[in-house]
Specification:
There is one protein chain. By secondary structure, the chain is an alpha/beta fold. The protein starts with a strand and ends in an 11-residue tail after the last helix. Helix content is 40%, strand content 16%. Helix 1 runs parallel beside helix 10 and helix 2 crosses helix 10. A six-stranded parallel β-sheet has the order 1-11-8-7-5-6. A three-stranded parallel β-sheet has the order 3-2-4, with helices on both faces. A two-stranded antiparallel sheet has the order 9-10. It folds into two domains: 86 residues, Rossmann fold (3-Layer(aba) Sandwich), CATH 3.40.50; 122 residues, 3-Layer(aba) Sandwich (Rossmann fold). It binds NADPH dihydro-nicotinamide-adenine-dinucleotide phosphate and 5,10-Methenyltetrahydrofolate. NADPH dihydro-nicotinamide-adenine-dinucleotide phosphate binds next to helix 10.
């Protein structure tokens, strides 16, 4: 069997078209959504992402505000910038690109963002809201994965899902979203025993590990859905966390790297910016863009 290759790039493009239409409708009401992206330091990969985010933000008709701080900037300078963005009515969403330089306290920085403007969904209040089933800002990468899975499988209720990875930015919120959709969720990590066997029982495998080709083809249940979040730069170029060649012979559907989850992350960032703008203006949540 050969798996359906899920075209995240095309799905994301469709999502951006919807966002563009709904942004235009908002602008017609006198409201222009605005996203501020803050980059601290000169990490080349982060610079590429941030430029891509800025370009796509403008292409949907939203305002994009870029702020760059040197890698040596004191944390107080970043906190002062966040405070300024918190109080700027033209800014509906704030994203501080991670990772931050080692001298900064990531949690303190994230929690300084007004939760309503926290389009990454990393603020402790949004984490708590998601975990308790309240209206939250939801992290972009897991949201993108959820959209792809719902599109593929429809109702996720009762499906068994294994999420490999327990980070605050991918694994844990992914598990929360799948749980909210009534999947039966197992979270695996570096201390998990019998990971291959665990995966073999899963209808859905989400890999967010950060190790090239980590998930083997024979870990996959025939016909299962495989979502590869991993972005690993190797001598063979950009590869995911799943051995794509092997897994795509067994899975029912699989996301490629590149062209799978990555483009969905950025599209969901724009979706969340629109959601934040709607909520800030007492408008209903945008159609089809919130989980
Ligand atoms: N496509 C996209 O939009 C995005 C892609 N990414 C990519 O996704 C990947 C994961 O990112 P992130 O969550 O931030 O990474 P982290 O490094 O924060 O987390 C990795 C997780 O994998 C687990 N892990 C490590 N080794 C093993 C192992 N041998 N067996 C089982 N679990 C293991 C770790 O377990 P433990 O907790 O025990 O250490 C940890 O929970 C990276 O490649 C990253 O680049 C990230 C964000 C967005
Ligand atoms: N505050 C914050 N929020 C984030 O959402 C965030 C972050 N920090 N730090 C870094 C990670 C990583 N991330 C990606 C976004 C897009 C692609 C993406 O578009 N990938 C393309 C390929 C891009 C390439 O060629 O490098 C693809 O998979 O097709 C990948 C990874 C967001 N992150």
């Amino acid at each position: 069997m050969t798996a359906k290759v899920i075209d995240g790039k095309a799905f994301a493009a469709g999502l951006r078209e919807q966002i563009k239409l709904q942004t235009a409708a908002m602008i017609a009401q006198g409201i222009t959504p605005g996203l501020a992206v803050v980059l601290v330091g000169e990490d080349p990969a982060s610079q590429v992402y941030v430029r891509s985010k800025e370009k796509q933000t403008r292409e949907t008709g939203m305002n994009s505000f870029a702020h760059r701080l040197s890698a040596e900037a004191p944390q107080a300078e970043l906190l002062a910038l966040i405070e300024q963005l918190n109080n700027d009515p033209a800014v509906n969403g704030i994203l501080v690109q991670l990772p931050l330089p080692a001298h900064m306290d990531e949690a303190a920085v994230i929690n300084a963002i007004r939760p309503e403007k926290d389009v990454d969904g990393f603020h402790i209040l949004n984490v708590g809201r998601l975990a308790t089933g309240q209206k939250a800002m939801v992290p972009c990468t897991p949201l993108g994965c959820l959209m792809l899975l719902r599109d593929l499988l429809g109702d996720l209720s009762g499906k068994s899902a294994v999420v490999i990875g327990r980070s605050n930015i991918v694994g844990k919120p992914m598990a929360q979203l799948l749980l909210r959709d009534s999947a039966t969720v197992t979270i695996a990590h570096s201390r998990t025993r019998n990971l291959p066997e665990l995966c073999r029982q899963a209808d859905i495998v989400v890999a967010a590990v950060g190790r090239p080709n980590f998930v083997q083809g024979d870990w996959i249940k025939p016909g299962a859905a495989v979502v590869d979040v991993g972005i690993n730069r190797t001598d063979d170029g950009l590869v995911g966390d799943v051995d794509f060649a092997a897994a795509s012979q067994i899975a029912g559907a699989i996301t490629p790297v590149p062209g799978g989850v990555g483009p969905m992350t950025i599209a969901c960032l724009l979706a969340s910016t629109l959601t934040a703008t709607a909520r800030a203006n007492g408008l209903p949540d945008p159609e089809g863009l919130t989980p």
